[in-house]
Amino acid sequence: MIALVSPNMNSSSFLLTGFSGLEQQYPWISVPFSTIYAVVLLGNCLVLYVIWTEPSLHQPMFYFLAMLAITDLCMGLSTLNTVQGILLGLIQEISLDSCITQAYFIHGLSFMESSVLLTMAFDRYIAICNPLRYSSILTNSRIIKIGLTILGRSFFFIIPPIIRLKYFHYCHPHILSHSFCLHQDLLRLACSDIRFNSYYALMLVICTLLLDAVLILFSYVLILKSVLAIASREEQRKSFQTCISHICAVLIFYIPIISLTMVHRFGKHLSPVVHVLMGNIYILFPPLMNPIIYSVKIQQIRSRILRLFSLKIC
């Protein structure tokens, strides 16, 4: 495969990796992937439409949910062209500039999803532990500032290592590990000094993903403490019920990241198909499941969607 492709490849292009050994089945594999992408796009657009058109949902909790849906929608769009392009036989390689741009958005959107989940945990903490001040703390202007902070935190601090990728010398075979571009994948192919990128990326992960996970856990410890102090079992149940969908979203986001990290770190002996599959789960599972979970678990969104479809049928 390498020998056949490499001579025809431009020196600034990289070979994308699909499901190695299953090339004959690509037309069939493209069917479930097309379905998943369709659900990702339609599901998140539906959530956004419901929140936009329903005045009763113009509340902080649903504004943050809209931020999550936008992030998931963009994450799906960021890999659609390369993943489906490979499966449909439309593309096989990607230029360095396009690869760097895709890596920038994939990592930025991952940090953004983590930040939004942390903000949603903060929202649940205020709603349960300090309900009387909820509306005065989370005003519209403050929500806008939070959104802008999330954007800056997610996309500004990753610029230095991403820009440096453009000036590296890539002397190893230009074969990526996935159907899309990742920062660590390009580092693996570089022969330049990558220490800055490696240490900077590690610091970013610690200061975003790891810190966010710790703060989310801490917020739920405080929430649990507050809920257990409530005398009524019914009130306890209602309080926990408002957190279930967010807890599911947190698990759906962090479990694939941890699994992919473990596969990269300890699964070098595994089939390349496993690496590609885990990479696609990391990218597609949260955007696929989040709109389903929130549509099922949050009564206001569920009833609005049912009402929307009943009107369409009539």
TrEMBL record:
It holds the Pfam family 7tm_4. It is a multi-pass membrane protein. The keyword Membrane applies. Its main location: membrane. One of its GO terms (biological process) is cellular response to lipid. Signal peptide: none annotated. The chain crosses the membrane at residues 29-52, 64-91, 103-122, 143-163, 199-223, 244-267, 273-294. One of its GO terms (molecular function) is G protein-coupled receptor activity. Residues 43-294 form the G-protein coupled receptors family 1 profile domain. Belongs to the G-protein coupled receptor 1 family. This is Olfactory receptor. It comes from Odocoileus virginianus. The gene is OR51V1.
